[in-house]
Structures are given as C-alpha cells and as structure tokens.
Design a protein that fits this description.
Blueprint: H1 2-22, E1 58-59, H2 62-66, E2 69-75, E3 79-85, H3 88-93, E4 97-106, E5 112-115, E6 133-138, E7 150-159, E8 169-178
Parallel strand pairs: 1-4, 6-8
Antiparallel strand pairs: 2-3, 4-5, 4-7, 5-6, 7-8
Protein name: DUF3299 domain-containing protein
Organism: Flavobacterium saliperosum
C-alpha cells in the first residue's frame, strides 16, 4: 500500500514538473489591452476575436469561495442534507462577470469542473469540500482540455443554494483567458 502511495506521488510530481517546464511561455496581458486580446473560445467560432460584455470582471479566489457555512435541512429525496449559506460578497457577484483560476477536472465525456486542487486531491477523492469546485459551462461548446490543466476562466458567476444535485458554484458562458493550448 505504501509503495502505491509513493508511486502516485512520484507520478504526480513528474506530471507537474513536465507541465511547468514544457509549457509554452505566455505573454503578460495588461488590463488596458483586455478588450483587444484574443481569448480562446471553447467552440472556436468564426468570431474568435469578438468579446461580449468585457467590462472589468471581478477576480474571485478559492479563499472567498471557501467562506461558506452550511445549514441542515430536510430534503424530499435525501432526508437531512446540509444546504450552503452563501456569503454576502458572493451574493453581490451573482450573475456578474468574474475571473477564476483553477485546475481542470473532467466530470464525464461531456463536461468539466474547475477545482481548487488537482484531481488526486479534489473534492471527490480528498478531504476537500464541495466549495472547492465549480461547474463550467463554456461559451460555444466544450474545448479539449487535459486533467489538471491550470487555466484562468472568465465568465458569469452563479451560485446554487437550493438544489442538492447541483454544484454550489458555477461559471457560465466561460472562455479560457490563460492556460489554454
């Protein structure tokens, strides 16, 4: 058992090192050129350079998303369930443009989530909670992404405090602004 754990840690370290040292250098983009930059569209639509609702999006952090409390309530399907109580700052961000960074975690063949942690220690496998992951709905369809690929997304923030079968946090109409191919 211990040999397996060591092997997994070594493999993760090798993957991390390869991602870090063999990825192409990205240009720093200033806020002044934000509206002029090319952003990666998930569906690679013909109007690739066109950006809607650019404005000045808020940058969210995993620390802020982690400032959450839970309240036990009855659910018809699952009995007693812990429902999230969203903090005031996030309530003000509902349906507004945000920027968020994290690791890509594949959910199935059709969708991805953005995670605070890499796949090996994500919400499903590790000690993290549901506040450390966000559902992603890409603009124009899903791009091809790698597990544990670190990306920065821009999109519309939405929280869910009522449906226990859904993520607590979502980023919709998302585009990759850093860390894409």
């Amino acid at each position: 058992m211990r040999k397996k754990q060591i092997l997994i840690i070594v493999l993760l370290a090798v993957v991390f090192a390869m991602e870090h040292f063999y990825s192409p250098k990205e240009k720093k983009i200033s806020k002044e050129t934000f509206s002029e930059r090319n952003i990666q569209r998930a569906g690679f639509t013909p109007d690739f350079n066109k950006v809607d609702d650019v404005g000045n999006p808020d940058t969210l952090t995993w620390k802020l998303l982690g400032e959450i409390k839970f309240l036990k309530k009855q659910d018809k399907t699952y009995g007693e369930v812990q429902f999230p109580i969203i903090n005031t700052k996030l309530k003000q961000t509902q349906k507004k443009r945000i920027v968020m960074s994290g690791f890509i975690v594949p959910i199935d063949n059709k969708s991805y989530a953005l995670s605070k942690n890499v796949f090996a220690s994500c919400f499903f496998c590790g000690k993290s909670g549901p506040e450390t992951i966000m559902g992603i709905k890409f603009r124009g369809g899903n791009p091809k992404l790698r597990t544990d690929q670190y990306v920065t997304l821009e999109g519309t923030f939405r929280y869910n405090d009522a449906n226990v079968d859904d993520w607590i946090y979502h980023i919709e109409d998302a585009v990759i602004v850093k860390g894409g191919k």
